Each structure stands twice: as structure tokens, then as C-alpha cells.
Amino acid sequence: MKNNVMQEFLKQFTIFKNLSPSEMEPIIDIANSRKYKPGKIVFMQHEPITDVFFIQSGKVKIYKTDYDGREQLFRVLQQDDMFPHQGFFRKGNYPAHAEIMEETVLVNIPILSFENFLLTNPQICIKMFEVLGEIIVDLQNRLEEKILYSVYDQIVLLLLRLARDNGELMADNIYRLSISLTNGELANMIGSSRETVSRTLTKLKNQELISQDIHGFLMIYYDQLEASIFT
Q1: Which of 20, 28, 99, 115 has its CA 20 to 30 A from that of 146?
Q2: Residue 165 three-state SS
Q3: Residue 231 pLDDT level (bands cut at 50, 70, 90)
Q4: 50-56-58 Cα angle (round to 5)
Q5: Is residue 56 part of a domain?
Q6: Is the dihedral of CA 96, 201, 136, 222 positive or negative?
Q7: Which class for 200: exposed (0-12), middle (13-18), buried (19 or more C-beta within 10 A)?
């Protein structure tokens, strides 16, 4: 990736967007770009944290496995997402696995090199705290959902979140999910069962709150779906 393209890409992120071209130069010098094939593991849970990644194109799933090998999917990341969000400030190991879902281009920044940059540019830390704050709010909201809402409502809230994060706005606030997730993967995202998710999706389809297009991707009727639990 050429320097001007790299700079334009990285400046989309909150932590970089207010930097001048001269301030970006040392960051671009330590950044690397690489193309990944589907199924490639970017890093594994418990491996030492060495890099923070930025998605230029493609999709990456973030998940954990328990002692029985069962997978719990946390998020599906796509273009213009960064991960792990706590990587620049957290010592230790990666908190989850990261796996490529489709052909993906990642830009990675080595943490040690970036830390040296921060020592002479402390104003960047403030911008990074803004990003971390957004993630903390998201985690707080998910915890609240687990405590306050039924499993049915948690599934609805998950679909609304997926529409916002991984959906393409079609018309009249209808979102088409840009990722294909099995009922088991949806269940893992909220700690439920595949059977419960399947029953709930069927009910939502019967109520005409969601549907599927000819390619099998979910269509989320956002306003109607949101109203079903907040009215």
C-alpha cells in the first residue's frame, strides 16, 4: 500500500484523523499491509499481544473457545474496524481468536514501535482513550441486556446491533446483513442455544419483522423490530 493511500486509510480512525501529514509519517513508516485468505488465523487466544490491526477490506471474526472446544462468537469485524481495541495499552495476551472470514487486507502496527512513537506524541493517547471509551459503553450495554432482557429480547437486540454494525441500508430503514451467520453462531454471541434462536427467528419472520433475500442474507426491518421490544 503506497504511503498516501495508507495515510488516507489510517486517518479514518478516531485516533489518527486529527493528525497532520507530518505527524502521520512515523506511523506510516511502522505500519504494514498484508492480504489474508479465508480461514487464516490472525492470532490465537492467549498468544502474546504484538500488533494492532486495521481492516482495509474483508471480514474478521473474533471468538473464544472454552475448555470443551466450543466456540463463542463475540463480533464480526469489517472494513474500517480496528482490533484488538485494548492492544496499544494492554500488556499480556490476546483475549480471543481472530480468524479471516473472506479475503481480507489488514494493516498492522507493531505495539512496541507505536509505544515509542507515543512517548514523543502523548496527544495521541487522548484520541485512543476515546475509542476505548466507545468499546466500554458497548460492553456495558451488552451486560445490561443479559441482566434486564429475556432471551427473546436479547436476540432482537443482537439483530439490531448486527444491522447497525454489519448491515447495508437498503430503503425505508431496512438493513441487509452483509455477513452470513448460522443460528449456532448467533446463539453463541448471546450465550443461548441454536434451537432457541431458530424458534425466535421463525417467529420474527412470521411477524414480518425480518426476512431473507434470495441469497439467504437476513433483511432486518429495523424500526418495526425495534418497536417490538420498546413499545
Answers
A1: 99
A2: helix
A3: low
A4: 100
A5: yes
A6: positive
A7: buried
100 and 186 part of one domain: no
**Rg (Cα) of the chain, in Å, rounded?**
19
In order of 19, 26, 73, 206, the CA distances from 182 in angstroms are 41, 42, 11, 19
Q: Would you say the pTM of this structure is higher than 0.70? A: no
Q: Domain check: are 31 and 72 in the same one? A: yes
User: Residue 133 has what DSSP assignment?
Assistant: H
The model's pLDDT over 67-114, given as tens digits with 9 standing for 90+, comes to 777 778 888 888 888 888 665 666 778 888 999 999 999 999 998 888
Q: What is residue 26's predicted lDDT score, i.e. its pLDDT?
A: 87
Q: What are phi and psi of 38, to 5 degrees?
A: -55, 140
Q: What is the pLDDT of residues 29-40, one digit of tens each?
A: 999 999 999 999
Q: Tell me if 137 is assigned to some domain.
A: no
Give the range of the structural domain holding residue 156, as residue numbers without chain letter: 149-230
Q: How many domains does the chain have?
A: 2
